[in-house]
């Protein structure tokens, strides 16, 4: 992509109505645009990042046999009444249609997925099954001041699994847990992300959150220094020791919840009378699990974790482009390099702008945060190549023109 | 994908609460699920088709320099008041947030995109620009009985372009028109789809719809037998002749609107005071165009157009799978073929179900409508291969086992 053609441009000004760091810097760099509290447009650079996160999530859900669907965002009042959540789930946006029926905007989809799965999963032979979607969700939050960390409208991956018995759910739950850690590893977040024990409800002792440690977090967790597990604030009074090694000297830390998984048991199958026929021809209640993860919140988390005073530092797996190619008044030579990178399917943002000075181009590259910066100038060409600098390093080196592709091709 | 693992199964029963053919057959085949009037879940097979349509649209929008974004579905009341549409656009779903602010669910996005573009497009040097999104849209329809053809919640591609003058918009508009016809060609709809002249508003004599002829259509158009253009009902009283060749004997036909493009002029830039600096340093109003297309409606249209008494007949470009491979009690041989197809990146749905008879498998293949059916049975293996039948034909032929990949690889 040529930067001269890019829809957005960067700005040095911090947006006045935005208090969260992740939103401030993403707005300044042209990744997102604020429509209102907790409501953001994803702009071309931002949507590229979001789609890359979505695709990593999608690939890992496929490894645990998740089948992708897309459920409605409009959900009828009746299904929420069936689970007693119409009046008891305070973040539901509610509205009335021209048909005088009432609807909620989907904040989560147990109430839609259970009646749906009931239509297809009738026999023990048809389970286990697992379906997921990556979808816009809505939560009528009173307080939405954390940028992408707490949206009134946000992107969520929600998966739901259906099992004949608890042992099968327990086994599947562990495979999803492992898939979640693979996702955090691919996103560069694994070392900072703690499996966090939280309250389980009627059907299991614990549920689990995945909490990424950062001062920007709104959550408080109590971490075990040995096990990379934590206990959340909700249950710390009762469980003030590490659930794995039993150490009692847990340390408080701030964190962002980047995922949560939950054994639902028969809570929803019971509400919707979802039963299956077992091997003996007897009718049994279906056992369910649910597995949430917010790609837009993860995008905000990554920005909070990976940055410096000059801008964002994207992990390569989700960077909008791998390379930011800067032409300093050498557009002819730079265009040839740009074309060669494109021809080799290497993602590159090409700063070909002729009316922008070197300082502004360097500042933009740091702010936008692509992993590698390539500079083409008369000086680098005299030295026979281009200047390469990783966003994470201050070291620069000259790469000969005929070595550029080799440098970046896997 | 193994059919034994597929989340859905087909049904012979026509859903009772569904009067539209496209929804009936898509529900029976397991592509979609009805949540309420004009509200459908996309199931694994249906989402595969929808995503393929989306990707064709996305590719063609890229050819006209469209940059993809994702705007919010929640839109503040103020922006609709600025264009006088809060009280005058009867399909808006309206709701109130916990912040006591009022919102509409996005039915179209001129009111969001114009203030957004105003932030980035300030100079003649920064135009033309064009941005689009593929997004869930909401319309509070009183009557939503046409399945995917008229959703209260549906998928829409909406693109908006920004220009310094009318001539630039006029030129761009024609390139988008051509891109639309490339999309219909790739979807197999081009021969049936008529460029249809409709009312233009203050800034141009006509806007244009793309109308696909079918008895299932809710629209009436008046077609020229020579020019593959039409006039819509709205303007036929004034323009009762072909806009191209001037023939007056137009023929009435029923059709589905599968796209529409519109020269907005300064209607929205004026409402939001979106101006740019021209070459002389003078402030000028931005000229806009908008370009809509509904991938979910297109999916319904294709089902209405391409079917027979046995089921759907998907065009290869958007079929959920290219091949439906049926094992008739020969799962070992069929699994080897399945694996080889997978290894060669050929999309295949493998009916490996052991408790389903041949008749039901054939019926499912016809109902689901993949372009090619491959049958593996003791008979076909005795004849040295598999039986190939195209969904569009009654002819069958035996393909030797070692020729299967060659047959399908491009």
From TrEMBL, chains A, B:
CDD domains: ProRS_anticodon_short. SUPFAM superfamilies: Class II aaRS ABD-related (SSF52954), Class II aaRS and biotin synthetases (SSF55681). It is an enzyme of class 6 (ligase). It comes from the Bacteria. InterPro entries: aa-tRNA-synt_IIb, aa-tRNA-synth_II, aa-tRNA-synth_II/BPL/LPL, Anticodon-bd, Anticodon-bd_dom_sf, Pro-tRNA-ligase_IIa, Pro-tRNA_synthetase, ProRS_anticodon_short. It catalyses: tRNA(Pro) + L-proline + ATP = L-prolyl-tRNA(Pro) + AMP + diphosphate. Keywords: Aminoacyl-tRNA synthetase, ATP-binding, Ligase, Nucleotide-binding, Protein biosynthesis. One of its GO terms (biological process) is prolyl-tRNA aminoacylation. It holds the Pfam family HGTP_anticodon. This is Proline--tRNA ligase. It comes from Candidatus Falkowbacteria bacterium CG10_big_fil_rev_8_21_14_0_10_39_9.
